[in-house]
Sequence to fold (85 residues):
Amino acid sequence: NDTWKEFNKNELTHSAAHYLMAIAEVHEKQGYARLIDVSKYLDISKGSLSTSLKPLIKKNFINEDENKHLALTKKGQAFVKHIRH
Fold:
């Protein structure tokens, strides 16, 4: 039971961290990261990714513009940097 309490304290799930890493990698590779590019990179549907990214947008880890371009915020960049190191 204590394990679940600890898990619930985490700000991000493993999947959410994976999405942030994918956005960073796609952006580094091609200079931008659109929703469709990241969904192809992860081999998931655009709809599934869009739904999964909403909490990350609310928590200020990523921004999405009207053209479905994704960008890590400073908070998102710091998280990715932390994971990489």
